[in-house]
Amino acid sequence: MDIRISGLSKRFNREWLFSGMDHSFSEGDSYAITGANGSGKSTFLQIIAGFQLPSEGTVEWFENNIPVPAETVYQRIAIAAPYMELVEEFTLKEMLSFHFSFKSVRNGYSIQDLIDIGYFTDTVNKPVRNFSSGMKQRLKILLALYTDVPLVFLDEPTTNMDEYGTKWYLQQVETLNIPTILVASNQPHEYTFCNKKLIISDYKPANK
Ligand SMILES: Nc1ncnc2c1ncn2[C@@H]1O[C@H](COP(=O)(O)OP(=O)(O)OP(=O)(O)O)[C@@H](O)[C@H]1O
């Protein structure tokens, strides 16, 4: 799926985060979305995922050059972000079954494959609420990367992860060959695989 944004601007109250953004995201490329804390990276991702409206400008989605209706975009996107909550009452296995009752697993993997890939074999029946913060983050990344969609959005993907978790995350990305990943991050080790970069703070208006 391709995304085209035109004149995209966002403000909260009187403060403009970014203004006049024109950009295209093409299937096959992966993008690092960078900028200082509070520059608007998460907000930008939510707008181009169709979860939030811009203050000005447009976002359009295309599949093979055919427009995708805004209300169906969510079916083609998987997101892992600090603000996307897991269902804490579920066990690991229930969480996987629930998530993959809405969308398919990528590349024909089974739920059992995912349990093994995520190193969750010993915690299958443990409630998510009792997971460590690093385990929860590994689960969020597993769910996002292994959902069979053309676009994956990752917001601060290695939050709470140690060096093993970070290495695991990069290995999954390398193995899966996902058409397009957008990573909102200020940490270069989280987006080593991205071939394009968009700096949100470049679009902060001086006097708007
Ligand atoms: N719903 C909202 N209402 C008002 N202000 C908001 C809202 N959501 C975000 N903001 C503000 O917009 C600014 C950008 O927030 P955002 O989370 O998009 O930045 P970010 O670049 O992802 O930050 P970080 O690197 O710290 O995660 C912040 O000042 C934030 O307080």
UniProtKB/TrEMBL annotation:
It comes from the Bacteria. PROSITE patterns: ABC_TRANSPORTER_1, ABC_TRANSPORTER_2. The keyword Glycosyltransferase does not apply. Transmembrane segments: none annotated. InterPro entries: AAA+_ATPase (IPR003593), ABC_transporter-like_ATP-bd (IPR003439), ABC_transporter-like_CS (IPR017871), ABC_Transporter_VariousFunc (IPR051782), P-loop_NTPase (IPR027417). It holds the Pfam family ABC_tran. Keywords: ATP-binding, Nucleotide-binding, Transport. One of its GO terms (molecular function) is ATP hydrolysis activity. SMART domains: AAA (SM00382). Residues 3-208 form the ABC transporter domain. This is ATP-binding cassette domain-containing protein. It comes from Fulvivirga sedimenti.
